Structure prediction request, 118 residues.
Amino acid sequence: QVQLVESGGGLVQAGGSLRLSCQVSGVIISTSVMGWFRQAPGKERELVGSISWSGLTINYADSVKGRFSISKDNAKSTVHLQMNSLEPDDTAVYYCGSGLPGQSIDHWGQGTQVTVSS
Prediction:
């Protein structure tokens, strides 16, 4: 059974940075995709970005391009989301998820709160 555990959320001022981590345990299919999602109060969950388990393919939502970056530490089975130049609109609960390309997410983490103050 795959388990995902996020960490690194917190309160930061606008313009600041945070680094989220998603610790992956269990057996991950090599063709899986890891995604970072976020859900703000009253809004639907949205994709922030994704990285293939191989680490070769990375994609970002337009709203975070140039500010956020995703990386993967193979040795620690951890996926990171580096968030720079944070804005109040980035305030949300951030989740990591895993699944196969083109299919729904199979596994979710519990989420970590990110709050950006103006």
